[in-house]
Write a structure and sequence with these properties.
Order of helices and strands: EEEEEEE
Distance between the termini: 61 Å
CATH architecture of the domain at 15-76: Roll
Shape: globular
Strand order of the largest sheet: 6-5-4-3-7
Largest sheet: 5 strands, antiparallel
Strand content: over 45%
Helix content: under 10%
Radius of gyration: 16 Å
Oligomer: single chain
Structural class: mainly beta
Number of strands: 7
Number of helices: 0
Length: 90
């Protein structure tokens, strides 16, 4: 890991961050403005766009843009489970 103008630069890091891939990203947030004082949060969803500067993820709550320098961890995840139909009560 090297520094470049104060940002973390990780060339080739997480090459699976491609459009259409379902991922979970853990990324840093501002503890002072977070609702409960957290310093990190997650985004789980499908990547809509990705470049060297940010990753855009469509989550169940909407689109989330995450600057790559704030990403702490990333993991490709399988598709969501298929919901079963509701069982009828007798």
């Amino acid at each position: 890991m090297t520094d470049h103008e104060g940002d973390r630069v990780r060339a080739g890091w997480a090459p699976f961050l491609q459009v259409g891939t379902r991922v979970v990203l853990r990324y840093a947030i501002d503890r002072k403005t977070s609702p409960h004082g957290e310093s990190m949060t997650d985004a789980l969803g499908t990547i809509l766009a990705a470049d060297e500067t940010e990753v855009e993820v469509m989550t169940r709550r909407g689109q989330v843009r995450v600057p790559r320098v704030l990403v702490i961890a990333a993991k490709e995840v399988p598709p969501p489970p298929v919901r079963r139909p509701r069982r009828e009560m007798p």
